[in-house]
Amino acid sequence: MKTPVEMDFLGFQGSDAQRTLIERHVGELERRFGGIVSGRVAVKAPDGHHRKGAAFLVSIRLKLPDGREVDVSRTPDADERHADFHFAVGDAFRRAGRQLVTKVERMQRE
Question: Which residues pair with 7 in a beta bridge?
């Protein structure tokens, strides 16, 4: 990646371990697909009075060559597993990986 991934933690201060986890996921996508120009990951903590069992919201935006982008920012279904930071981040990166596969296939056909 040409620039380091930008990380925003909303409603909490991200730990070094959480930053490392995100960097590892970005690195895996970069190794699989290459060509990622830049990236931004935002993680929003559950609302203050709804922390127990509420979901982390993870948004990933990756810029690719030729102005193409991958944008993962949907709200997860009611799934208590998204209350776990590691699961929520991993799930978002799995969706980003699926979108990258689709983009790469389209780019190869063009």
Answer: 41
